Records
---
Amino acid sequence: MKTPLITTENYLKLTQFYQTYAAVVDQANWTAWLDMFVEDCVYKVQARENYDRNLPMAALSLTSKGMLKDRIYGITETIFHDPYHQLHMVSSPLILSESDQGVIESQANYTVFRTKNDGIAEIYNVGRYLDRLRITDDGIQIESRLCIFDNEMILNSLIYPI
Amino acid sequence: MSQENRIPMTPIWNHEDTSRIPFWAYTNEDIHKQELEKFFYKNHWCYVGLEAEIPQPGDFKLTVIGERSVIMVRHEDNSIYVVENVCAHRGMRFCREKHGNTKSFTCPYHQWNYDLEGNLQGVPFRRGVKQDGKVKGGMSKDFKTSDHGLTKLLVAERGGVVFASFDHDVESFESFLGPTMLSYFDRMFNGRKLTLLGYNKQRIPGNWKLMQENIKDPYHPGLLHTWFVTFGLWRADNRSELKMDEHFRHAAMISTRGSGGKDSQTTNVSSFKESMQLNDPSFLDVEVEPWWDGPTAVMMTLFPSVILQQQVNSVSTRHIQPNGHGSFDFVWTHFGYEDDTPEMTERRLRQANLFGPAGFVSADDGEVIEFSQQGFEQKPFHRSLAELGGKDIEETDHMVSETLIRGMYAYWRKVMGV
């Protein structure tokens, strides 16, 4: 793999961005979550099996910020589910490519623990973020985030974004 | 009921009809083992997959019937075989790949090799080894490879969907479905080639029958699935029908989105959300397809193994794979048709956001099944109630009935002998 030109400053920004994202979803701060995406964005949660076989199906396939907002409305207002907390552990990012126009393609592994009201944390979802990010003066925003998960089976349901 | 009557608990159906369902039907491991034998392994056709999953000769897919691992494979002559994934020698589940392409099956343990129909082709050292001019070891003289093939299943294909049965005396697939269910089956699988869009898989900690019941229960969609009602996809006064086969084991919930007025009586919930609009209406960018022939949603439950879904443009099979009495894996295979435009494929994929483990109107089904099982486990001497629409079993022209659940349990009791 050709090593992209990476400035220390951008790598620090990127690292901060990945950890901020984890904190935002762990706190269920959905307004902040939405703000991390550009208007014309893609957010998918897809089984590795589908991704590896080029099958387009995904557990969640949101292709506009409007869809992201509708998802948040769904999880906060309409979907019945057991209450739970999420805790994300996100690895250091790996930069795959960086363009002159300020677009970075990068990835990072994640583990999400789920804790229900019975108080026992369980490994809920593990995978990697595969991202296309835009560096602007206001910080980093997501053009596309694919959450490609290894779990063969989702543990019953997947409500919150990961 | 006194504590003495509860423990030990004997599984007796102590109600005259099926408007009450004892919790032991969901919690008793012996009952579960019997169900596997009587419904999944005998007398029934079980879903294994779509032809589109194995398009080329030699393509195979690993799947399950009940709790038995089986392989669906396409032969060189294009016909489809289903064999059990247990080596005839030492019983190993030899196939470890979920899918692939092969010329034959080999168990890595002792290299026993089978053709794609499951016939044993050869075993190493069958005639022993030659040492000092003598033949030593090897199989008995009367060992015949033809006696030691893989367990072969009967296969039925229709409209691109593949079913199999361990029971070689099972009735024909067409007779198993019966004429009414067959007509709805043929509506969805009308001979056009299917295209595979991919999978959603979830593990639901509840008894497998609860998923059949969920799709035989038109009482809950407008009440549990607030999303349906909020965005106008479901109304209790939609033109609808509930139909069954003559044994009441299979069913279809058929409904057509009406253009009727907004009568708050009809939904009974969430009317305050009437004015909600989607930020991105493309979730519900529905295009009427000619093959629908009217209904906008037909949900079929084929007992015991599969649910066939048409919800507007989203079509899928949902495969029920039990693991013990208190858990099952639920595998959704989404597909399209060969003549779909790219726009139609996008539409099917977008609408799939409503379904599956993360779906706007399906995530909550898995949740309520989990919590129902919790309720059953804590008081297995108790029973649930299914009395909406009375206590009889009959087809209806409305959705306000639990008749399909009563029908399923009438059939279940007959087969289980309880």
Note: Chain B touches chain A at residues 98, 196-205, 224-227, 230, 273, 276, 278-280, 282-283, 329, 334, 345, 349-350, 352-353, 356-358, 360, 363-364, 366-368, 370-371 (CB under 8 Å).
---
Amino acid sequence: MAKKVVVIGGGIAGMESSAYLAEMGYDVTLLEKENSLGGHLRNWERLFPTMRLGQEVLDFLKLGIETKVNVIRNANILKINRIDKRFQIELERGASFNADALLITTGYDLFDATKKEEYGYGIYDNVITSAELEKMFMEGKSILTPTGKIPKKIGLIHCVGSRDEKVGHVYCSKVCCVTAVKQAIELKEKLSAVEIYCFYMDMRMYGMHFESLYKEAQEKHAINFIRGRLSEACENQDQSILIKVEDTLAGRPLKLSVDLLVLMVGFIPSKGTKEIGKLMELEFGTNGFYKTKDQHTLTNVSNIPGVFFAGSCTGPKTITNTVTDARAAVTTVASYLEGYNLEIRTKAFFQ
Amino acid sequence: MIDFGYKIQADRQINLDTTDKDLANFVRKHENSFNICIGCGTCTASCSAGNFTNFNFRKLQLFICRGEIADVKTEIAKCMLCGKCQLACPRGVNTRNVIMTIRKGLEEQL
Amino acid sequence: MKIEGKQALWKDYQKEIADDNYFYVRSCIRQSFFPGSETAFLNIMRQDLGKDVYEHPCHTTCTGIGYHSDIVPLETTMTVVARQFALMTEAGYKNYVPSCVTSFGLYTEILDIWHHFPETLAKTRENLKKATGREFQIPENLAHASDIIYKFRKEIAAKAKYKLINKSTNQPIKVVEHIGCHYSKMFPSKGVGGAEYPYVLVGMIEEWGGEVIDYPERRHCCGFGFRQYLVQANRGYSIACSHKKFESMQPFKPDLILTNCPGCPMFLDKWQYAIAEMEGKTYGENGQGIPVFTYEELAGLVLGYNPWDLGVQLHQVSCEPLLDKIGIPYDADKKYEGINGQKLGIPEMPLTLKCC
């Protein structure tokens, strides 16, 4: 009989790993707490750096799990028991599943921007998040500020909730810089007369083709990049937003009014990541994501034998990284189930 | 008017809502590579003029973008157009033509 | 503006404020800048609210101004603060209420230092004992006097004779509030409403019928900042700060600036005169300034105190336009009368700023 794998979380990592595991002949059950699969990808219209539609990637992922994967939606996990080397997962509605291995793909949540009180999100109408801007793109309506104006000036703030000890997230979220560049270009394409200002701490254009997207934003779209971090946002009488930064290259304070302020919110460990972690006593790293057994050599291995990780539940990742990580996790899970002993080479495995 | 022995100090803050960005727009239009600067400062580090004067191409580009253009005319006069910065620039900014275009922009606006 | 967003934050920044038996300490400078305010506080607390407030004749400066001007060393400051606490302990009180925001900030800071570095507390006890023979207990509750008025804002509203309503338009009086920097910018959790959107004055304004204006430079310093002003050569910096605020608030046409700190009303009031005389610019209606009030003065006004007893005639910017808007009666002839009807003389009028 085929060995059983339960994958927890139906986002990119969960879908892609399920597809490979099922195709390899394992009996795969994919548990998703929501009614639909795809996770955050469902809310992203176009993807950096190619500007292709997110839907295309979603369609690709869906094809992989269409026939051989047992997909359970609206699955709320109540209990996970470990009996010898096997796992028993109980759902709220009474269903229960057995597994020889567990793959956790519980992903991330977006940072709650109200925590940066001085940025005025949730207080000033014309302050929105990158996710809300993406929703506007998704809906295909004309771009208006929440107070109903066609924006003439837009500010994009990088690193909101990332690289910030004050909110307890010291790490870089990896995708926000390039998302800002992508969204700035899209805004400029939709509103040709708009002036766009990106406020950054460092431009982290590490991915292949990210730098050329950045250059395109400058060269073709005249997007303004100002090296400075937002200190505070206030509301003007006309409900535009007054922002203050230090222009660190000029070495002088700078202020600017924008009709729309977009906060590039970063990654935080998801609620699901925290819940499943607590339920199973999985180890968390200092940043609150799951701790992998070794940062270089055991990237998909947890502290519990038979339990593995894939995707952004171990830290911020791009879609490309997530897909790659999911496939890497599949080989790790399969080698465990087949009794290969490749991990044993690593010292950390014994600790 | 009364002289109290002090004046209301001028604001150091750059007010992007009110500064003069006409020159920036002129240069952007005529020498597009002006836009692609990333402020790395290689130009200034390699500058022959900058070794003996306070000429700073990075700051020149920056302040024109910010619309702070009061000193631009005297600043560009310090450039010797040697082209060393153009060789060094990692983004391929046509720095010599940027200087020439700034000069043209200033003349046209005068 | 989404008020629910602010309300959600305000919920996170509530602090404990004792409800009776206060040990009150005055500010060094308020009695000369706004001489009726502290008396008004005591009268409101004792007569209108029936609370016990004790004042000790031997209390001194907290050294806040000296401390923030780099003149008084921290160890000395801690010992002086410990002496104030000793006076409180000796008088049998546990709830310490400073009138001054800088004092409040300094006490909060020192309590925090003592908490994190207990050896400094031990050293302070030793210093105080050696210098004065006194011993002290740390206050059970530390609240700024504006916290106390905030706590009883509803009781004051219930007894109010006037509401903050413009009687000719029936619209709420438009108020900009200015919180002293030391109230919550150093320790957001110690201020009602936190540091970014403090609620302490907003709560009073709302409760008494006014409308709060949030303007872009609300968080900016009033211009006191101690060393900005104390050295004459730096005063251009001080007045530039106030100037920035006035320029930012003017488009909203506020009827009133409300403050909770000793320095802020001084600078927001007097610099309007200096700016008018230096540049000919005024910020209120008809060439006048924007009236600046302390929260005790405003509480006194709504409770029906005689404006002259509150000392509002000592403001540089005339208060009469605001009194007229609310419909508070006053006897113009008695504006400059001292105790027993003694005539104190009428001050010279400024050249540019229109005053009554």
Note: The mean pLDDT of chain A is 96.
---
Amino acid sequence: MTTFEVSTVVPEPRRPWDHSRGTLLRVGVLVTLSGIFGWLLNTLTGLSGFLGWYVGLAFAMPVVAFVGSVRHGWNLASDRVASAVITVAFAAVTIPWVSIFVTVYQKGSKAFHSKYLTDDMRITPSSDVIQNGGVAHAIIGTLMMVLIASLIAVPLGILAAVYIVEIKGRFAKLVRFLTQAMSGVPSIVAGLFIYATVVVFFGGFSAWAGALALVILMLPTVARTSEEILKIVPEDLRTASYALGATQSRTTFRVVLPTIASGLVTAAVLGIARVVGETAPLILTASYFVAKSTSLNEPIASLPIYIFSSLGLGDENATTRAWGGSLVLLGVVFILFAIARTISTRLARK
Amino acid sequence: MQTLDTPTEPREIETHYTRVDRVFRGFVTSCALFSLVVLILIAAFLLYRGFEIFADFGLSFITTSKWDIGNPEDTSTAVLGIGAMLVGSVVTAVIAILVAVPFAIASALFIEFYAPRLLRTILTSVLDLVAAIPSVIFGIWGYVVLLPLVEDWSGTLYKYLSWFPLFDVQTPIFGRSPLLAGLLLSIMILPIVTSVAREVYGQAPRDLIDASYALGGTKWAGIRTVVLPFGKSGLVGGAMLGLGRAMGETVAVYLTLNLVFKTNFQILASAGGNVASLIANKFGEATDYELKALMAAGLVLFLVTLLVNFFATVIVNRSRKIV
């Protein structure tokens, strides 16, 4: 008598598009062949440099893929060509990204010296030698404006999300729609609006005005992210709270919001990352000042304007300073992102 | 003995909020409507400050391509119009979209269907990070790194394609041209178009993709017949979001496009500008009357981008609803 072994293990559903070892080998051969072709094209024609080589590779890869598979029929050949085209196109997209990061790092690190992060430009003209002056005033200004902007925009953004998800009021759809529309307001228009109101009424550029312009740009990001996070809160928690006789406000403030506190921090951080590099609205509202300043009613420096104004001078040292400022700004954005990512992965694990 | 009446229909549930809750709900509602107030205030104040311009020039403010303040003492000698800038906004944004969309489709497909699992999570974060690179950094990079490259490419394009009006120029000197600004904008808007496309493609029905495999189809067959048709409207919405971004971009265009008041369709010529960069450019030393014109220009830009975003949002939301 034969016995049948019945497997009790349910097989994992397999993603049909996952790669096998054969695929990797084939791709390796494909890329090598195309790379050689790109190099040949580079030496034979006027194309030059890495980009020229890449153009050669990009054209060669679909052709090589087609030639290598056409004997198996049209369907397979079109699949291979599509894979080649998609991969090549995506790799092309990353070239400018890498170039931006590398250029900012290379050129920006030249502007660094021991006091770069602690000095300001009070007694240093932009064209002065690199060893003098620094970006401290711009860092302080950016921090102050972003802090004030967050103090206003983060609560408002979270409350807008609470309205959509918790209260589900009559205007919920409208509010979501308006927040999305607001995220499309060009930053210069936000600056122009604050100029037409705050700057004109209070008679001058100020850190206040800059911060208010940033509020307009920050609010949609915070509201949108908070909304996504609020939706994660399980309905059971709310029901349980209501069942214990809690009011809606108590449920929201004592149960729902504390549950996703770290998610709300992520929303705030993403909002800050969105506005920390805004240049155009600050030209119209906060203007620029060369010394460290903490006065809210005076013009104030900021990293983006420091970059922008140094760049406009056309001098070599000034341009190096602009790159230095870019490196600091990019570093700030990078750190903010790392924070947001760490918090949100921790939240996801919960 | 007690009799139990079985109710024939469910009891009607009424909600009575306590006083605290009524205050809470009212407070949150008023905060939520803040964005509505801001949007209305923006339109109202820009119209209020720029009204004189619309009264003086009417429609010709949008159609004329001249920026001449004339005698600063006498506002009636001024001729102001943003026609060339509107054309410039559209030309650069269209170049950006035409370049960015194919690459965005490829990137979204690559991240969603071709990249290994680990790479996929990394790339999703990188995409968000690139979307947050400040525009001034894109601008300085475009000016220093991209400009010489595009000058080079422009030379080649002009050499072989100058018979085509788009690629013709009066004098073959290339520099900060609409092509450069458009290419830079395409790099800037690519992350947002890609992430919208990726999100939509990720929602494509798995059973249909599996069915396509079950019928012996290749991966490309599944993408072509299921994913791409499914994500079409979402992609259009994402592209329009990118269009809105591109039209409202200020600093990057300011740094990579020569501001010249001429309606310019020759994308290799170093002349052009867009409305946003006009405002940044003229703001510093503007006369009072000119400032009003800039407010009016800002209002036009605001309304145009609002309209583009409106349609984009409607399309994206509709494509979400299908799921």
Note: Chain B has 13 helices and two strands.
---
Amino acid sequence: MRASYPPLSRKITNALMLALTGLCTVLVLSVLLTILGYLFWKGASSLNIDFFTKNPAPVGQSGGGVKNAMVGTLKLLTLASAIGVPIGLLGGIYLSEFAGGWSAFTIRYTTDLLNGVPSVVMGIFVYTLVVLPMHHFSTLAGGIALGIMMIPIALRSTEDFLRAVPRSLREGGLALGASKSETIFTIVIPAAIYGIITGILLDIARVAGETAPLLFTAFGNLFDSRGWMHPTASLPVVIYNYAISPYDEWHRQAWAAGFVLLSGLLAVSVISRLILARGKKLSHG
Amino acid sequence: MAKAALVIPEIPFQSRGLDRKQTWWERLRKGDEVVHLITLAGGWSILVITALLVQHLWVYSRLSRHAFGWHFLVDSTWDPVNGVFGAWPFVYGTVVTSLLALAISIPIGLGSAIFLAELAPRKLSNALTFLIELLAAVPSVIYGLIGIFLLIPVLFTVVPYFQKYFGWIPVFNGTFYGVSYFSASIVLSIMVVPFIISISREVLIAVPVSQREAMMALGATKWDVTWRAVVPYARQGIMGSIFLSLARALGETMAVTMVIGNVAQVSTSLMAPGYTIAAVIANEFTEATGDLYLHALIELGLVLFAVTMIFNALARLLMLTMKGHEVVG
């Protein structure tokens, strides 16, 4: 009697459903591998030196590259970090060390909501905020758009890592006679620094692939963009424009640009996890 | 100085009051208050930015709001040349693609989350989750690229066979051009599935062991335990992950723009090309001539913003209550 419980039908359901869950996982993983594999295969075979060193060739001619777009993306990310990182850090310190009650709740909730604003809406916002008053697209506007998108994650990850610092460390600092700000800057932040850096690197990697907000702010440019007040090309926008174009040569370059962009993002992702692992090792022994 | 030092110890309560006043200055001098105020400014800038965002979307959509009112959402004429704007085809496309994407990704995502949380050994589960979360790190424009050059050619070979047998059903009939609601939904489902998996997995893992043991003690199989004891316990968190994915799917721009076809029409067939709110903004914003046209597009942005905010807020609330739940349970 004991051996026949649970009944066969339930055993079959059990095996079937558990197998299905495994199948779901395999399906998702195979989609991931297909995407990465296909991108790396198409992208790597489309790469050459010109791609990195030349600006786009006129339509119809083969050759040319996306040097201006790579420079543009780097400039945009620099500007975005200059805006997003300080505000995110300060806000994170405020939430973790000073805020309490309704103030903390309001800021935290608003940050999460801001994080969920569709990127295309962020593009509209910065268009009305910067581009309309200036009357033209610019690197500045693109950087501001990406910078605002960076704030929520920089802020919340900084807060999370600061919160994870044990209370006893803070008390130790205060007991030695340090002021609260001295404790924060010499004890709490150094203890969480690896985590904070990881969060910011991942944040930069996230906005590096954003396309929609750049369409109406940084726009695009076939040539080098000098200074901050002119439209600039960027890798994601180039991928979009080339992918929907009818030219094979541009398709090839879209793959190459996608390959370069994704390799960069994945590299940052892996490096930041290594930094975090190293930080954990240091703090545990 | 000397006199004060003599007097104060005799009146302890007054001295405490004096201390407090001085402490603020002391803290200011030491830098505590300065740091507090500077970081406060950092935190409050979030509120300022969000308020500005809402104000700008509201002000810059006024012409369209005044001209069309609520009809804007249900009229299906989008005619920039004559200045008539109705957003129904875009609203319809956005809702259809997002819901279909969820219909595809919820079972698959939940299945994977159950596998990763309940069946796989923890180390394997962590490694696989890391891989799956890489899917979330892929930029949307790259999904669009894959969609155009890999998914659509594949669908072109698969869909005709499918239509041969199921083409009589209205939602599957019609000529298939590659770009369609269906293609967009598949791309969207791939994009949101990592969110469903990683959040659901977290909440499933957080379900107390006692919950499982109680069900096991009743003689339940592994699947019964999971499906009747663990999943219902975690349902709030799972719902949260679904709302979060829905908000993301509604607002997704580039990948959808690249595979949906960008035709402002309403079709019952999922195999027909369509349009979404985010896609029309991305395509027409820089070409919008005239204030009314621009304001109509910004009103679309306002609609998108409002809807995604509602679902995000719901998701956050559900996950907050879930966190409270964990602490209690």
Note: The longest strand of chain B covers residues 78-79.
